[in-house]
């Protein structure tokens, strides 16, 4: 930011922090992708209506409290970044953390994580299953930077299946059957999607449950509306050659790699063929210790015991619920109406709850006739 612009934005940010006591409302951020949307994000009246003729992409994802830029063909600068809801000021959350990281992240986290909010949260709205693919893990990105330019992390991710129409194919393929060889996988990809999927087991996308997908694991998400919590990264390699009936370019299939065979070396074949994989990584909400009050209840949807890279809670508020956390978090209101320390909440609202707010008692109030349901998504632990 130029010096004059930076000074203006710093003053606007300081006023916003003071006025909201560190509970920062964000504008919705929608992101283009190569797969068709299901029309459930509120930006189209029917599936596929978000199609962009210039890029031949749809808009099937909403990114929550994002400091990550999307990787897409026909790139748009800053696509994927979340903006603070400050009137007449365009300030990204990423820039706000650079300007006031000690306040927003806490001094220890700000130093350790270099002014970054190390989690990426998305809502996925696929009309048809997302193509079979995998994400490199941290070791691959760290040890092979030439294949992952401008990426700092691999991508572990977790799903939570939201209560909304599930679409036609609510099944997620995860991993590979024991005994599948790399040659068999490559040959199947060459022959076509249906051949590759025959090599992979699957789960049913049950409401209120989820699944953990470590980096290096082939998977194909189904059509259920899905809350995804992941590392702040957009690395991927596709294991199909077509999407939506259209052939994809090599750049779309294996960005950063000269060919698919080079990319395939980063699949974690051992984990992918674990015979207990589907049971081991299934996620069912578990009670948060001390998380039940007369006015509401918290459950872990991604417990910190699973991974140190991110975690998440679901909070149901019937009347009034007092919360206190040890870290800043992204907040998404899924249903109901209410207030948070006096700020209005309604379905679809999105906030960055900063360190100064999260670590002090803050009160959720239900002001509607239905339960108030929110999700609290947390970044990586500080080492």
SSE layout and pairing:
Layout (H helix, E strand, L loop, with lengths): L2 H18 L2 E3 L3 E5 L24 E7 L28 H13 L1 H6 L7 E5 L8 E2 L3 H6 L13 E5 L9 E4 L7 H10 L1 H5 L4 E3 L5 E4 L5 E2 L5 E5 L6 E2 L3 E2 L2 E2 L2 H4 L6 H5 L4 H4 L4 H4 L1 E2 L2 E8 L2 E7 L8 E7 L2 E4 L5 E7 L1 E4 L2 E4 L3 E4 L1 H4 L3 E5 L5 E7 L5
Antiparallel strand pairs: 1-23, 2-3, 3-4, 4-11, 5-12, 6-9, 6-11, 7-8, 7-10, 9-15, 13-14, 16-17, 17-18, 18-25, 19-24, 20-23, 20-25, 21-22, 21-24
Q: Please report the number of helical segments.
A: 11
Q: Let me know the average pLDDT.
A: 95
Helical coverage, percent range? 10-25%
- Extract low-pLDDT stretches: none
Main sheet, how many strands, which sense, barrel?
Answer: 7 strands, antiparallel
CATH architectural designation of the largest domain: Sandwich
Report the end-to-end length measured between terminal Cα atoms: 30 Å
Could you please say which CATH topology of the largest domain applies here?
Jelly Rolls
Number of strands: 25
Task: Return Rg in Å.
Answer: 21 Å
Work out the count of structural domains: 2
Principal-axes geometry comes out as globular
What does this structure look like?
This protein has helices at residues 3-20, 93-105, 107-112, 138-143, 182-191, 193-197, 250-253, 260-264, 269-272, 277-280, 355-358; strands at residues 23-25, 29-33, 58-64, 120-124, 133-134, 157-161, 171-174, 202-204, 210-213, 219-220, 226-230, 237-238, 242-243, 246-247, 282-283, 286-293, 296-302, 311-317, 320-323, 329-335, 337-340, 343-346, 350-353, 362-366, 372-378. It is of the alpha+beta class and 383 residues long. The chain folds into two domains: 29-280, Sandwich (Jelly Rolls); 286-378, Jelly Rolls (Sandwich), CATH 2.60.120.10. It has a seven-stranded antiparallel β-sheet with strand order 1-23-20-25-18-17-16. The chain has a seven-stranded antiparallel β-sheet with strand order 2-3-4-11-6-9-15. Strands 19-24-21-22 form a four-stranded antiparallel β-sheet, with no helix packed on it. Strand 16 (286-293) and strand 17 form a beta hairpin.
